[in-house]
Amino acid sequence: MSDDEHAPGHASFQMRACEHCRQRKIKCDRKAPCASCRSLQIECRPSAKSAAVRTRTAPASTASQSDRQMYIINQRLASIEDSLKKLTASSISSPIRPSDTSSPNIEDSPASALPTFDGESSFEVQTLQASEAANRTVSQVFGHASNVQLKTAISSLISSLEAHNLDARAHDAYLSSIDTIIAPEALPLPPADIISAIVKKVKTNPPMILANLLPRGLSYMEQLCQKCYFPSASLPSGSRALLFALLFFTMRDYVNDEDSGFSPAQLQPSMQLCEQNFYRSVESYTTLTVPTLENTAALFLAAMRAHEESKVHLVWTYTSAAATMCYSLGFHRRSTVVNDPLEISELKRQVFWNIYMTDKNLSLNLGRRSNFCDDDIDQDVFPVSEDPRQRPLDQLNNIFIKYGVVQGRVYDELYSPKAANRPPSEKKVAVEYLGRQILDIVENEMKTLEVSQSWFPEALGGMLAASDAMAYTTLTTIYRAQTNTATGTEISSECFAYAKMALEAHVRFTTEFVPENDWAKESYVTWVLLYMSFTPYIIHFTWTISTLDVQDLNLLEQSVTMLDRFKHISKGSLRLRNVCGAFLETAKVLVQSQHSLSGIHQHDDGSLMFTDVMNSSAPSNLDWNAWSQAFPTMDRNADMSMFLNNWLGDNRPVMDMLGLDAFDQSRPNR
To answer: Region Disordered: start and end of each range (predicted)?
Structure first.
């Protein structure tokens, strides 16, 4: 027999399958190493009999043994090189985390998003600008050693804003707290007896949040339960996501309702299971991308949950995805639903308009153009139920649709890039017209709504009582856009008046309508305090440090005292209280010291003008992101006037500084 016949490639006919292939009972090509072991990147161990054969047939000479070893080494190096090429190609095309496995029941979580954009009406942008301007103000204050209190107050303000923005820039891309998502069909279901009792209860006592947002979704939940627990075919991931969402919100309301007939211990385990299943389902690729009614509704409910968790940019992600699906499915057009069964057509309309309202509110708060174009929508509004208990809720939703339309116009006509180039006279006309529309909706429609016979009359009455705070906040934002750029930055007397009225309305509402229980506090924080902007506080702060009035300072103190009641509810409410508290301390020092500000002129009508002297000192094109890393060189001639002008100037409205998670540059530790 020749030497070539003893080489590993030719001796395979004498070899048995390797130990690993024999154990796994798969075909082995009987090479050393075999193809299966190379692909799995494990050591290929020949069987004992094969080793004995090779020992008997191996050439005795040292040179032949050396050649054989070199051959095996080269084969293994080639195998390693091939594996590295495959890994590199795989990492480029579809990166995965080292902890991920190839299990068919595991789906990669969506990657953390790139840094997001916040427009000029965003409170986050204003925070960065305010922080930079405050930093430059310190240069003069620090030059006066005698003014220790003012130095400390402004330093504290900068520190508070820095801490807020470092936290706020972290983007939350997930609702769940795990890195891998189990495929929906593998998720465990709650006990059938619990679900059966829930479905029966819903028919006679619907949960508040769903009766308000998706009343037609409650009957749809029963159909989904039947398909899930008694399947005749596999239920799509979007249907499961919607089912888990409906069950979670329903059980959560019943847990917090003492008259529901369920004890917390009875529902808590199933509620927590549905919550996690909901998160995992909605984060799947198909739920986020495939346009179906179920996926669209699930994304809307995911946006609501993200809002409750103070993850505003995640709300935008889900809302934008849902809006895209609405257009793909034609939910914005009347003609696409007229031939549907009544229940389905009404559900589609409810889903569409809820996404629309969320989008318009968030568009203004984040300073981004809405996903919806009003000129392209002819869909009918919420179907109003004949049931006197449901009718007020449907009517209120239709009022909020009108409110959302005006919010969209506020951004388009006052804060969009196109609006920035409008003459001041045109903008003033738009301000007055939009202001009248807001007042008309609230005074003539919202406050005249009869709710005594509705579901949850006390809660609905409280919601209507909060309409003052909501309206005055929006009016503050509207009148903040009315500036006179020809002579300098101006804040009108109407803007200051509405800001003061908004803060007074918040204090009054929380005193009269929010009892001392966390469930009521959560509702206020989620759907009033953080749903709208807290712009009025910042505008009133500006007024206070300009006039140095003690009564105005007292309102700032009352507002912070109010926020103390709610700071434990969420991350958003805590950040709001901390930042407002820092502004309050600065205002206290300035009012107590009667430290007047240069460059500010008050007109007879009460408006404030930040003069051109201040404007000329303001640098342009500043890198506002740099302040949180290392403060740039400060203008030694700056003072608090510069702080205000840079912050409030250039037609930049002070929107939701507590926007909660803007400039998302890194995924949070979860």
So the answer is: 91-111
